[in-house]
Design goal:
Blueprint (H helix, E strand, L loop, with lengths): L6 E2 L24 E3 L17 H4 L7 H12 L3 E3 L20 H11 L4 E7 L6 H14 L4 E6 L4 H6 L8 H20 L4 E4 L4 E5 L12 E4 L4 H10 L2 E4 L6 H17 L5 E4 L9 H13 L3 H12 L18 H6 L1
Parallel strand pairs: 1-6, 2-3, 3-4, 4-5, 5-8, 8-9, 9-10
Antiparallel strand pairs: 6-7
Helix pairs in contact: 3-4, 4-6, 6-7, 7-8
């Protein structure tokens, strides 16, 4: 049998798109996704969920989640994006303290839906190796006939890094340098039928080869929500979707970030699509929706929101605040959004 020729990687950071970028468009003028269905309480940091935990907090439990996913698929939702959680935010509501991991959630979703695209959120900085995610992702994409995608997160919460044996959170530029190499090696593994030797600063791989290959060609869709300068640049160089979250959520800020995304991607001779997040409170009338909104706000879980705000800021002790702050350091508007 003829020996395979080994490919020696000579590219270690993006832009890198062997075979080009996948077509991320569905043809719809507006695409709708489910977000964070796979964790306790989803994005609702409120003690209101404790009024009926089965209904409000534990939708992620199977078969409730299965029913939700099947319904979204039948109604024509385009995507589902799973939350990636290793450390919940606690509080009385135990916000995000439990949930399905990225691989289990995507695999289960694949077999109960037919059209819904399946995005897994993976914190690539938590000592995963690109071989892990390239293989797991390719298998889920193979099973789902090309519907899997990856939301790449460099890692944020200091408590997460501790759980994976890392006593210090690497600085932002280092985290994105690691993510850059991680994604580049995954793209090599998805694109080539010969073994790959890769000697980067952060990741090495010798004779790397995976099978099956992803069903979507030339590879699965990649998403990133980097908001720092380094993160935003990484997203436009390596991802296909840029997930934007303007600090104040004003429409003008969204428009500016959309334009910035397209312009920066074009600089790298690439194209990106832009996604954003909104909160929906759905009731039979506007008045009822306002009533529900007021109830959720009145029961806001201060302890969980405080943990969240510190974790996102990179504070090692999420409960370490020297001065009391009614809005957990976020300001009233952002506090109530959380």
């Amino acid at each position: 049998m003829k020996a395979r020729q080994t490919i020696k990687a000579d590219v270690f950071r993006g832009p890198f798109d062997p075979g080009g970028q996948p077509d991320a468009a569905t043809g719809q003028p507006l695409e709708i996704s489910l977000f964070a269905w796979n964790v306790r309480s989803g994005l609702s940091a409120t003690k209101a969920v404790m009024a009926d935990e089965k209904r409000y907090a534990d939708v992620w439990h199977w078969p409730s989640a299965e029913k939700l996913l099947r319904s979204a698929d039948a109604l024509g939702f385009d995507h589902q994006v799973q939350y990636g959680m290793w450390s919940g935010y606690g509080g009385a509501s135990r916000w995000n303290d439990e949930g399905l991991d990225f691989a289990t959630a995507a695999s289960a979703s694949a077999v109960v839906t037919k059209n819904l695209n399946l995005f897994s959120t993976v914190h690539v900085g938590y000592k995963f190796h690109p071989m892990h995610i390239a293989k797991i992702g390719a298998c889920i994409d193979f099973i789902s006939d090309g519907r899997w995608g990856l939301n790449v997160v460099s890692g944020a919460n200091p408590d997460d890094f501790l759980k994976f044996g890392m006593k210090e959170r690497p600085p932002g530029p280092v985290r994105y340098a690691m993510a850059d190499e991680f994604v580049t090696l995954m793209k090599y593994l998805w694109a080539y039928d010969d073994p790959v030797d890769f000697e980067g600063e952060h990741y090495q791989c010798y004779g790397g080869l995976i099978g099956p290959k992803p069903a979507r060609k030339p590879r699965p869709i990649l998403m990133n929500a980097g908001q720092s300068d380094a993160g935003f640049d990484f997203a436009c160089r390596q991802a296909d979707w840029v997930f934007v979250v303007p600090p104040k959520g004003h429409l003008e800020e969204y428009a500016a970030m959309v334009n910035k995304s397209h312009a920066l991607a074009a600089k790298y001779e690439r194209k990106v699509r832009v996604g954003a997040m909104c909160y929906s409170i759905i009731e039979e009338t506007d008045a009822k929706a306002e009533e529900t909104k007021a109830w959720l706000e009145s029961e806001a879980d201060y302890e969980a929101i405080l943990y969240y705000s510190n974790a996102m800021a990179g504070t090692k002790s999420a409960m370490d605040m020297t001065e009391p702050d009614e809005w957990a350091g976020l300001g009233r508007d952002q506090y109530l959004k959380v």
